[in-house]
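User: My collaborator sent over this chain with a note saying "see what the structure looks like." That's all I know about it. Can you take a look?
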Amino acid sequence: MNLILLSVSYFLASVLFVLGLSGLTKPKTARRGVGLAGVGMLLAVLATLLHQDIITYQWIIIGLIVGTLIGIPMGLWIPMTKMPERIALSHAFGGLAVALVGIAKYWSHLHVDGELSKFFMGAIGFEVVLGSLTFTGSLMAFGKLQGVISGKPMTFKGQNQFNFLIVVSSLVLLVYLVFHPHLSTAFFVMACLGFCLGIFLVLPIGGADMPVVICLLNSYAGLAAAAAGFALDNNVLIICGALDGGSGFLLAMLMSRAMNRSFRNVLFGAFGGEVGGDQVATQNKPILQFAPEDVMEYLQGSSSVVIVPGYGMAVAQAQHAVRELHELLEKNGTEVRYAIHPVAGRMPGHMNVLLAEANIPYEKLIEMDEINPDLPKVDACIVLGANDVVNPSARDDPKSSIYGMPIINADAARMVFVVKRSMASGFAGIDNPLFYKDNTRMVFGDAKAVLQNIVSKLKEAA
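Assistant: Without extra context I'll predict from the sequence alone. Here is the result:
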């Protein structure tokens, strides 16, 4: 394939990537967006494989086969409830691939070509550092999400200073290599520091902050790919990496804003850990408790219901039970909607993905700012495993650690049913005044079991 045809192919692939990203902004066009981006990637891969610089296809074919054998089962068999973990693994593999390409390219130029320009060395250095920290950081995120590693923040004295030292050391080695590229020992020390940095950056971040972390790791992977594009003189990698890095960074900013948190607070604040109720200074106030049959009786007379899904729904895998309740209530003439908080769950759009997997119509999923004005007119609000995203302290208490964080005003509804396993706090480790309000009824138990109980009672009463 000549260079003109290659350039045209890369240009068309880039256009398809942009159109695909644009399609993902709306639910109705999301499927088309994924398809366009997939066609763009296929075009870019085929154009690269047909380029004259490729001499042998043996290892490429082996790689394609291995990747396909791993990718297809992951796509088909991993349940939607494990989507955050799958995304973290995908980021890890992407980061590792970029880092290995950078190392191979450096070694090839060092021992075969013998020449390394300052610009090339700088691009390779950024590629390897960002790729390696994305790999280990994503594996740490996967471990926390999967429960292999504790989801609580893991800190030690002087941790931020230690991380800063790793960053500075990596940059110093990178600058040194730009002017002395033949010192391979410095290069591999820099790569090792990148791997270490990924571990220690994610270590102090709690499980509840994973949506922001996943966005940042996505951004790092994109920037690493863009750096690889400069090193390989590949325009489509530069464009694709820039799109990935920019969108990931922007999404991380939006997620942080939705939590009323700064990047610095997320990355270095050791916040976001799940804290048990015995570790929290809970208010010694009585609560009003309902059994599932009591909830069923109230719902039978309700004309409008809003469901607020949270991480507890994901843990209990209760989305299909939610769908059953939804259908029964609608048959009874009740309007059912879902209030979606942008940081509910463990990844961006976590609740949207789970509810979509249960075939709940997307138009029933309402954003926080849109649903809040309607809540005072709602007969019942069912809070499923959500905590801090419905905590009135964020709105009313200037002394609260989450004050200023936008929340779903569940307490404004005429009646609130909070489905939880216990009175344990959320990731902020503070008490929730919602639990003690006169219009709140606590329903203790596993979200899935509670909903199934309510559904069975509704069926019996029908």
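A starting point for your reply to your collaborator: Residues 272-282 have pLDDT under 50 and may be disordered.
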